[in-house]
Amino acid sequence: MEKFNESLSFDRRMWREDVEGSVGYARALARARVITNDERDALIDGLGEVGKEWERGAFAAKAGDEDIHTANERRLTELIGDVAGKLHTGRSRNDQVATDTRMWLRGELLRIRAHLRTLIEIAVDRAEREVDVVMPGFTHLQSAQTVRWSHWLLSHAAAWQRDDQRLGDMIKRVNVMPLGSGALAGNPFGIDRQLLAKDLGFDGVCPNSMDAVSDRDYIAEASFWASMTATHLSRWSEDLIVYCSQQFGMVKCSDAYSTGSSLMPQKKNPDALELLRGKSGTQIGSLMAVLATIKGTPTTYNKDLQEVWHAMYYTVDNMSDSLQIAAGCLATLKIYPDAMERGLCAEMLATDLAEYLVRKGVPFRETHHISGAAVKLSEDRGVPLSSLTVDDLKPLCAAFDADVAEVWSYEKSAESRDTEGGTSRRSVLEQCAKLRAYLAAN
């Protein structure tokens, strides 16, 4: 039962937050005159020694150390004597663990957000540098229209920006303090929770003590955020896995982010991208585990809730690693503009052909059918769409003229999409500028 019940094997990661939270609580007890200033100082000095032991890896767990809280209090008692017993006055492990995890998660999410922003910055840097490279754009994995490589990069950066916005918004909800809620009913010793929250770096306090000790929304929300972000990384990875296949050959992962085959010497496998794609599945599974654990727990604290810490630690570790790997992979990725250009075909300009007629005054619904007839004509003749002459096209529509030859330019096709958010050079650079401004302002 001791083995089944203990959590020190994993919640020891929060030793720093447990010490810092206890230091803050000792000060709050002194302000409320529950303990003397001398007792406060003894507690703070003792907690400092406990922290130093953890820092240098010298803390020795003992039998009966059920979790990080009991372990630290036991060691504090060994160091300063019975006065250590006053630290827990009015405090429960219920509000203590909720406080520790919020403090720990707050710091980790800020670090993860920095990794996410680095990834966005790399995408923007490359988009600006490589803005003149054009490539095929796909729908249903079929060649569709001409786009810029940088536009493709920014399509994923736009999703990552939403991930960053969600993360920034979520951190505000993580950063509220449960401490002072006691086991469930509140603190009976007049603790100034607002001042304690300020001491511990919280933006405010949880408004209801019963909710505070049983609320694990912040873990579920962090797991959802991670699942959504991992899903975006997975889609980005899938694109690149396709693009770096021999059939496409448009990009290549650096040796640091790929491996060879154990059997086939010619292979260079995009392992980093495949692992990112795979880890999105386990991240989504982690979210399901959190929700399934929480859904059946009655108000207030129940030991089931201990299980969600596994998901919290996995989420932090997985997303920290994944975002750094994604950033490294993107920063070192090699592109092959010639292969991207070879992937373009005249049939991808069929929509441009229809738009040419629109500019001549023909309704789009008609031009769509006319362009389709031109595609069929080229297929029947076994020639590229661009090889059809004005004389070939005139029977389809009298509006065709010699200037139709200008349609057969991939660069011009991309440049024609010059609205906000489009794939023209100006628009792509505008998107880069907007992303840079967002990163600077948030």
Describe the structure.
The chain has 442 residues and is mostly helical. It has three domains: 2-86, Fumarase/aspartase (N-terminal domain) (Fumarase C, Chain B, domain 1, Orthogonal Bundle), CATH 1.10.275; 94-189 and 208-342, Fumarase/aspartase (Central domain) (Fumarase C, Chain A, domain 2), CATH 1.20.200.10; 346-408, Fumarase/aspartase (C-terminal domain) (Ribonucleotide Reductase Protein R1, domain 1, Orthogonal Bundle). It has helices spanning 2-5, 8-11, 15-31, 37-55, 68-80, 93-129, 149-174, 193-199, 209-214, 217-243, 271-295, 308-332, 337-342, 350-359, 364-381, 390-393, 410-416, 425-441, and strands at residues 134-139, 142-148, 176-177, 204-205, 251-252, 334-335. The strands form three sheets. It has a two-stranded antiparallel sheet. Strands 3-4 form a two-stranded parallel ribbon. A hairpin with a 2-residue loop joins strand 1 (134-139) and strand 2 (142-148). It is elongated, with a radius of gyration of 30 Å. Pfam families: ASL_C2 (PF14698), Lyase_1 (PF00206). This is Argininosuccinate lyase.
